[in-house]
Design brief:
This protein has helices at about 1-15, 150-155, 170-180, 195-215, 225-245, 260-270, 285-295, 320-330, 340-345, 365-390, 400-415, 425-440; strands at about 20-25, 30-35, 45-50, 55-65, 65-70, 85-90, 90-95, 100-105, 125, 140-145, 155, 160-165, 185-195, 215-220, 250-255, 295-300, 305-315, 335, 350-355. With about 450 residues, the chain is an alpha/beta fold. The strands form four sheets. Strands 8, 12, 13, 14, 15, 16, 17, 18 and 19 form a nine-stranded mixed beta sheet that branches. Strands 1-2-5-4-3-6 form a six-stranded antiparallel beta barrel. The longest helix has 26 residues, at about 365-390. The chain is elongated, with a radius of gyration of 25 Å. About 45% of the residues are buried. The model has no long low-confidence stretch (mean pLDDT about 90). Pfam families: ATP-synt_ab, T3SS_ATPase_C.
Length: about 450
């Protein structure tokens, strides 16, 4: 009886017949298919037959018996009347430990030339729901990232989700590579969403390196890929991370960038006929962002955790633009990478006064937290008076607090300077910071 019940359940998952439709319209990236009424569903896979070969597509909308589809590849060769075959439901993956050290695309297919991927026994949906909020474990203890500015002023905990907010060309990718190499974790899952094709191999070979790649899975969808594949790559990144989390491992999930995921979703929404809202972003963009980001975080008790670091490419260096504002409200902290600091030549160009970790102050020892707060006060005082001091409008001796900040803040800034190959250690950094504040070690740096 159990085997018969299992067979019956398996049969119910099969399509009772094969359904075909015909392409009736192609408008840009949107392909309209007739003849699949009652069978096609949102997220269903469709294979389009063209003169150039088979093209996979996904149903993104339904309208009076017409299925609105978007292809995973360029729709070259598609013509009116081309056959559309309904092939399967939503995509799934069969992740295994053999994926470590591999580079895959948004559909989980290998793109590194190393042969087929080992397939695990369990099928995992690419787009899945996060664990129930009432059942999830709490955020864990602090982990060292190896990046001095973060460990001192915006510490990261296991299961925390932190946003890296930056404009273009201010060292965001270099910071990500430092975090990928040095952060304490069992597995790193790195999603390069809408990345420049030229930089993919540079990141893998130079920034990540052989040692970093050995414990990582890299998911790539370059900027020239169709919007559907770019969006799919973000979901695939979280699905792979969830596999290792469910195996009890601590996972570091790096995604660059959430903004390009939102742009892909906007393109899909506009093609499906959604009305544009703020800066052209459609309503589904703001609905999909929490569904994506909430998948990171602690797992259920007994599982591992996904520590998420998500970059946000702020438009025109406006940190209050719609995507940055929405993501900041979802995540457990934000790190601001400043163009002004980068122009001064201090890297990583993290603005520690504008960066916040919502796990503070509990993730630090009382002594370290007191040191952090004292350093922030000195930096804040220096920032308020910096222009006056440089212009000569401030007279030394007028304020003991300003005099102290003038002597200490530049030394703190020097401490925060870090080369991409210079790994830091939190205990040593807090000792150096404390020595600067007390003035007991002129060579603390």
């Amino acid at each position: 009886m159990p085997s018969l019940a299992a067979a019956a359940a398996g049969l119910r998952t099969l399509m009772p017949d094969q359904r075909y439709g015909r392409v009736v319209s192609v408008r840009g990236a949107l392909i309209e298919v007739d003849g699949l009424a009652g069978a096609a569903r949102i997220g269903s896979r469709i294979t389009l037959r063209s003169h150039a070969g088979a093209i996979d597509a996904e149903v993104i909308g339904l309208d009076h018996g017409i299925a609105h589809c978007m292809p995973f590849h360029e729709p070259e060769g598609i013509a009116s009347g081309s056959r559309a075959e309904l092939t399967a439901g939503q995509l799934d993956l069969r992740v295994s430990p053999g994926w470590l050290g591999r580079v895959v695309d948004g559909l989980g297919r290998p793109v590194d030339g190393k042969g087929p991927l080992p397939q695990g026994p369990e099928r995992r949906r690419i787009k899945a729901a996060p664990p129930p909020a009432s059942s999830r474990a709490r955020v864990g203890t602090r982990i060292e990232t190896g990046v001095r500015a973060l460990d001192l002023f915006a510490p990261l905990c296991r299961g925390q989700r932190l946003g890296l907010f930056a404009g273009s060309g201010v060292g965001k990718s270099t910071l990500l590579s430092m975090l990928a190499r040095w952060s304490e974790c069992d597995v790193a899952v790195i999603g390069l969403i809408g990345e420049r094709g030229r930089e993919v191999q540079e990141f893998i070979e130079d920034d990540l390196g052989e040692e970093g790649l050995a414990r990582s899975v890299v998911v790539v969808a370059t900027s020239d890929e169709p919007a559907l594949l770019r969006r799919q790559a973000a979901w695939t990144t979280l699905a792979v991370a969830e596999h290792f989390r469910d195996a009890g491992l601590d996972v570091l999930c790096l995604m660059d960038s959430v903004t390009r995921f939102a742009m892909a979703q906007r393109e899909i929404g506009l093609a499906a006929g959604e009305p544009p809202a703020t800066k052209g972003y459609t309503p589904t963009v703001f609905a999909e962002l929490p569904r994506l980001l909430e998948r990171a975080g602690p797992g259920l008790p007994g599982q591992g955790a996904i520590t998420g670091l998500f970059t946000v490419l702020v438009d025109g260096d406006d940190h209050n633009e719609p995507i940055a504002d929405a993501v900041r409200g979802i995540l457990d902290g934000h790190v601001v990478i400043s163009r002004q600091i980068a122009e001064r030549g201090r890297y990583p160009a993290i603005d520690v006064l504008r960066s916040v970790s919502r796990t503070l102050p509990h993730c630090l020892d009382p002594e370290d937290n007191a040191t952090r707060l004292a350093a922030r006060r000195e930096l804040a005082t220096w920032k308020d008076m910096e222009e006056m001091v440089r212009l000569g409008a401030y007279r030394p001796g007028a304020s003991p607090e300003v005099d102290r900040a003038v002597g200490i803040a530049p030394r703190i800034e020097e401490l925060l300077q870090q080369d991409r190959h210079d790994r830091s250690f939190a205990a040593r950094d807090f000792a150096a910071l404390n020595a600067i504040l007390e003035g007991t070690d002129e060579d603390a740096l």
